[in-house]
Design goal:
Length: 559
């Protein structure tokens, strides 16, 4: 792969000016005319505020000062404790990546690998994400009405063993393994399902365990060789809903995720209409009055609403997310042209967002910022304007753009644009992890600049708005080390902790501590740091629950 220079300073200057110009146009509300629901609707105009620079410096807190015992106090006492509802800095941003198993795109590298090699490859991917401060992974567990986990409903996936219906040998449950390893690294694990695809052309021989042979009445064949379950059929809807229910009940997952495949792309059937005459004629015979397009959309809408309710009924902390095609309809907003998912995929993703059926929507905005008919910031602004129920809108970003000449920085620009436009609830999901893993300069830029610090998953107050109680914090000075311990009245309500700290004359900083990585509720900070022997002046710890709520912040001012 051709390697490109990522961090040249002249480009960074031009990039920064470019980002500010984009944010001036789109942050909060646009000063230009941007359509929301229909071309005649225009948003209110709000002037964008550019934040003022502060005078605080950044101290390297990783280098303890070289001090003699005489330079240290015998003990550090708490001068004052101040209860505040909000921590001193916002450390939340959703950072996720898709792990595709269909066609062995991301994992495993090929079907039929030994268990140990599969697990080793999984660890490599999870370590990459953890080392680059991601906090979620979206893992494909149902690529073609099959299972990358132990299931009594659907058969083992071809992409695991090379034979659909055959379990891994030696036996293990890949999903359990991925969940445990993701949680160890402080990452959420969302399971990604294709709701209707029955067979992919890379899926090997169609075995007796496939739904194509077990339930041929449910499926239709497309011209490109794929098989698709008919979304109008009740037994199809029941089957996928049962799969979702089973996953939520039996596995410690953090989210259910559907992608953009509802009714299939027409190109899969040679441009011809989806072959659902049988179910359409049955609907009309029963007195159905909807047009064929509206009927198809209603089939999908009803199923999405059903899944949304089902997930919350089983576990109220599990998110339901969908990553639809990035354009709802051409002309929304006015400058946008391209594929019409509403008319072609019969997916009314705007409705799902407007109704609040999804906890997060991740429109696949895989285009460039300067690609006018499908401009990334224009589309992101439109989707956020449609977020009337204040759910999460976290765009899908195409990391593969770093491979295109002249667009080596496009990924990073889009991350910055997203942070500006979604300042109150930032986040993104990256597609094409291979592109990042194969580009060392881009990988370094991401780790050292854009994802330099870890982040919490933003809270979802419509799911749960009750924060945990604040922990009780104790401190003890041991040489130049401040030993910090804490207690909490309900540790079962806490999934991670955030240690906030501030050295004199510097900005607040933080560390995210995950329960799975703590044997005891203890950590340490250097009391004096750097050549100037800067003193630690303030600390505080918050408890964070499963849905991202933080406890009140108790600011502890050290003497």
């Amino acid at each position: 792969m051709r390697q490109h220079s990522i961090m040249k300073r002249p480009y960074l200057l031009r990039s920064s000016l470019f980002i500010w110009s984009v944010l001036l146009l789109f942050s909060c509300k646009s000063q230009q005319t941007v359509q929301t629901s229909a071309p005649e609707n225009q948003p209110e105009v709000v002037e964008t505020q550019i934040p003022e620079a502060d005078n605080e410096t950044e101290v390297d807190t990783t280098i303890p000062a070289e001090v003699s015992p005489e330079e240290l106090p015998k003990e550090v006492e708490v001068e004052e404790e101040i209860i505040k509802s909000e921590p001193p800095i916002d450390v939340a941003e959703f950072r996720a990546a898709w792990i595709a198993t269909v066609a062995n795109i991301n994992w495993p590298s090929r079907s039929g690998l030994p268990t140990a090699q599969q697990q080793s490859e999984a660890i490599k991917l999870l370590d990459f994400l953890a080392n680059h401060n991601y906090n979620a992974v979206i893992f494909q567990v149902r690529p073609q009405a099959d299972a990358l986990y132990q299931s009594d409903i659907e058969s083992w996936s071809y992409y695991i063993t090379g034979q659909q219906g055959k379990a891994p040998q030696p036996f293990y449950d890949p999903l359990t393994f991925w969940i445990n390893e993701a949680h160890k690294r402080g990452m959420e694990l969302h399971v990604w399902l294709n709701p209707y695809r029955a067979y992919h052309t890379t899926g090997g021989e169609i075995s007796e365990a496939s739904v194509v042979k077990e339930n041929p009445e449910m499926v239709v064949k497309l011209q490109n060789g794929m098989y698709w379950m008919d979304p109008a059929r009740k037994d199809v809807q029941d089957r996928t809903a049962t799969v979702v229910e089973d996953l939520v009940k039996r596995y410690d997952i953090d989210g259910i995720h559907f992608d953009d495949y509802f009714y299939p792309y027409d190109s899969y059937n040679g441009g011809k209409d989806f072959p659902d005459d049988q179910s359409w004629n049955a609907y009309k015979a029963e007195g159905g009055k909807l047009s064929r397009g509206d009927w198809r959309r209603k089939n999908v809408d009803d199923f999405i609403e059903r899944v949304a309710k089902l997930v919350k009924k089983e576990k109220d902390f599990v998110k339901f997310g969908i990553s639809p095609f990035g354009i709802w309809r051409p002309g929304y907003p006015q400058s946008i042209a391209g594929y019409d998912q509403y008319e072609k995929l019969y997916a009314d993703a705007k409705k799902w967002l407007n109704e609040g059926w999804v906890d997060y929507l991740t429109p696949q905005l895989y285009w460039k910022t300067d690609q006018t008919p499908q401009s990334f910031p224009v589309l992101l602004n439109w989707w956020e304007e449609e977020n009337t129920k204040n759910r999460h809108v976290w765009p899908g970003i195409n990391a593969g753009l770093i491979e295109e000449e002249g667009y080596e920085n496009e990924l990073f620009n889009q991350i910055l644009i997203t942070r500006g436009m979604l300042a109150k609830d930032p986040g993104a999901v990256l597609w094409n992890l291979k592109a990042l893993m194969n580009n060392k300069e881009a990988e370094k830029a991401l780790a050292e600049n854009y994802f330099r610090k870890p982040a919490l998953v933003p809270p979802s107050p419509w799911m749960d708005n009750k924060a945990p109680k604040s922990p009780e914090v104790l401190t003890n000075l041991d040489g130049n080390t401040l030993r910090i311990s804490w207690q909490h009245p309900d540790e079962n309500d806490v999934f991670r902790w955030v240690l906030y700290f501030q050295y004199e004359g510097s900005k607040w900083d933080f560390k995210i501590l995950n329960n799975d990585q703590l044997s005891e509720l203890k950590t340490t900070l250097s009391y004096l740091v750097g050549e100037k022997k800067v003193k630690l002046s303030k600390i505080g710890i918050t408890a964070v629950d499963r849905t991202g709520n933080q406890s009140d912040f108790k600011e502890i001012i050290l003497e």
